[in-house]
Amino acid sequence: MGSCFNNSSLACSHLLASDFSRPLKLPKILHLDALEPYMSQRTLEMHWGKHHRGYVDCLNKQLENNNVLYGYTMDELVKATYNNGNPLPEFNNAAQVWNHDFFWESMQPDGGKTPEGGVLQKIEKDFGSFANFKEKFVNAALSVFGSGWIWLVLKTKEKRLEVVKTSNAVTPLVWGDIPIISLDMWEHAYYLDYKNDRGKYVNIFMNHLVSWNAAKARMARAEAFVNLGEPKIPVA
Ligand SMILES: [Fe+2]
């Protein structure tokens, strides 16, 4: 059976050979120079090639003989290992794998500029203006103490967009909120390109890297789960 990693009867208790895509693979970044000159190839080689790969490798090692966390999607794994605020040993690696997958997709070549359509309307509604949002995002990023992340999320209960910051590996996913954009505020994300000038890094992200295309797609998907307006289909 392909899913058996050790000889214990518990680990061999699955009927199917499916391994639910384990071991996890590091997703490929096709062009490591795609974000030049704003995020250098050298940074991508180190950040994606070493740090992100390290989280994937460590998580695979932790999951190798774990029969309890078998069969989870990445989202479920992050939530399950967060364990309602009492994280299991796998949480940091699982969350950092998720966070980095999400971060790479939060950027694009020739990014920045301004969002369009539904994302822009929702930003204007919830922050007053795009300029207000941008100021709030940048200020929040600069106030992250130590390592962490900054996020634009759709709060599912409040049904509004908010800027939130998290420490270390924590992701808003664990509170049931829907991330729209993220920015890695760990030193390994910016030090090679910007040394300790966090302000420059954050502003470059906002003006040249952030992918509003990704945000637009994520908002559209989020709206399938969070009703931001009146239901259009009458209930029978
Ligand atoms: Fe990172």
Automatic annotation (TrEMBL):
It is an enzyme of class 1 (oxidoreductase). This is Superoxide dismutase. Destroys radicals which are normally produced within the cells and which are toxic to biological systems. Gene3D superfamilies: Fe,Mn superoxide dismutase (SOD) domain, Iron/manganese superoxide dismutase, C-terminal domain. It holds the Pfam family Sod_Fe_N. Residues 116-218 form the Manganese/iron superoxide dismutase C-terminal domain. Its cofactor is Fe cation. One of its GO terms (molecular function) is metal ion binding. It catalyses: 2 superoxide + 2 H(+) = H2O2 + O2. It is found in: Plastid, Chloroplast. The keyword Cell inner membrane does not apply.
